[in-house]
Design brief:
This protein has a single domain, classed as Rossmann fold, CATH 3.40.50. Helices cover 47% and strands 15% of the residues. It contains eight helices and seven strands; from the N terminus they run E-H-E-H-E-H-E-H-E-H-H-E-H-H-E. A seven-stranded parallel β-sheet has the order 3-2-1-4-5-6-7, with helices on both faces. Helix 3 runs parallel beside helix 4 and helix 4 runs parallel beside helix 6.
Length: 247
């Protein structure tokens, strides 16, 4: 029996990086996956490539910062499959700068996607989960949301807020059969980190007790664990997947 056989799973920001690998892993474990992403070209390409492998993946262009867009996408997904089971709030952006250099626009862009977007998606999907009396919501935070980081006021504020919302929703929705948890990735090798200077990568790797950067697989597998019956008594937690970076 596959871990999420027959479940309908939404993964936001699923076109690239961690999101793409999460879409693939959920589909490999028997889920019907709705890939939500703002980037239509990448989203359609990813869904097509995975579908060619025999996996059940469909793309919906979604701007998580738009309530109307998210609400419509959730309704469309439910009407397609007759149920929704798991929401992975993976979408996120960065607009880094120190406080003195950060523009109000850069602040708001990150808050709109990384914090308000999580609220929009969860508010749109949770009524379907409540009605069926079961479901999982998995929010993507970050180790910097726990410990802070230079030059990321907007990102840290959003990721800290995600942890707070996770705790609130775990209390509100737990008795309705819905488990809500967060994952806090550490330093993960993706397209975004490919642009990071090797010197910085070496420093971060040296600070990580396991001696390497994380991979999208590491995060995707954490999502899968929290979505499966293996975590039936896990609710309201933030799972750090960082190789011990912040011990």
């Amino acid at each position: 029996m596959k871990l999420v056989e027959g479940k309908v799973v939404i993964v936001t920001g699923g076109a690239r990086g961690i999101g793409r690998r999460a879409v693939e892993r959920f589909a490999q474990e028997g889920a019907k996956v709705l890939l939500w992403d703002f980037d239509a070209e990448s989203g359609e390409r990813t869904a097509s490539e995975l579908s060619e492998q025999g996996l059940e993946v469909s793309f919906q262009q979604v701007n998580v910062a738009s309530w109307d867009n998210v609400e419509a996408a959730a309704k469309e997904g439910f009407e397609r499959y007759g149920r929704l089971d798991v929401l992975v709030n993976n979408a996120g952006i960065t607009r880094d700068a120190s406080l003195l250099k950060m523009s109000p626009e850069a602040w708001q862009q990150v808050i709109d996607v990384n914090l308000t977007g999580v609220f929009h998606c969860t508010k749109a999907v949770s009524p379907y989960l409540v009605k069926q009396g079961s479901g999982r919501i998995i929010n993507t935070s970050s180790v910097v949301g726990i410990y802070g980081n230079f030059g990321q006021t907007n990102y840290v504020a959003a990721k800290s807020g995600v942890i707070g919302m996770t705790k609130v929703w775990a209390r509100e929705l737990g008795r309705k059969g819905i488990l809500v948890n967060a994952v806090a990735p550490g330093f993960i090798k993706t397209e975004m980190t490919d642009a990071v200077p090797q010197k910085v990568i070496d420093i971060m790797t040296s600070k990580t007790p396991v001696g390497r950067m994380g991979s999208p697989d590491d995060i995707a597998n954490a999502y899968l664990f929290l979505a499966s019956e293996l975590s039936n008594f896990v609710n309201g937690t933030t799972l750090s997947v960082d190789g011990g970076l912040v011990l």
